[in-house]
Please model this.
Amino acid sequence: MSSFLAAALQLTSTPDPEANFAAAEELIELAARRGADLVGLPENFAFMGDDARRLELAPLLAERCSRFLVTMARRYQVTLLGGGFPVPAGEGQTFNRAELVGREGQLLARYDKIHLFDVDLPDGITYRESATVQPGHDLPPVVDVPGLCRVGLSICYDVRFPELYRQLAGSGAQLLMIPAAFTAYTGKDHWQVLLQARAIENTAYVLAPAQTGLHYGRRQTHGHALVIDPWGTVMADAGVEPGLAMAPVDMAHEARVRAQMPSLQHRHPALF
Model:
């Protein structure tokens, strides 16, 4: 398939998994009805709440999220990314895991988030993801999705580490999936420009599902799920309400951009 439709979903997930799964299915169905072949759910799609409750629910959520992705992919005949959910990783710890599932329910790729969000923001909010999350230890995967293209996985804070995306591009990724729960404070200045940079420097499509709005306490996210082409053009933007950003992914267009701007071929890996 030289061209297909991709959808980046946008949710306002809460501490209520039942409501979150229902909201996720509603948007997956909408994307499928509109013709999407590749659909991405954001980071923390099944649960956005405090760490203690996440740790308590992790064994149940890990199993249920995997089953949910398989069921949804089969039901709606889409390739589906679950952009991040907790998986137990020892006492008081989880992995933040993304899974990519094919339309027949087969697991295509799995990725545990490598870069953890430990940041003190000027708005007075402190984030210490590493307090309860173990970083992944394996390179992010690139998978050849049957009938679509070669897809590379990452999660949220990874977007600030261009070497990860160079690794994905070097492994043949044509589309970079960057599901996120980006903070409202940093998102207004950094979200779009970082995503465009990753698209431009790797001449790859970017599909960036997102969380949006107020989730619990002071936890607020930026929204603006995006689809970006290899030239860095924003093709679709979900705004700040739950919904989706959807646009065509055209492998012929990507090939033209890579021919016109062959920066990947001009690298000097022996020097850097």
Remarks:
- The chain has a mean pLDDT of 97.
- Helices lie at 17-33, 51-76, 162-170, 184-202, 251-260.
- The CA atoms of residues 45 and 87 lie 13 Å apart.
- The radius of gyration is 17 Å.
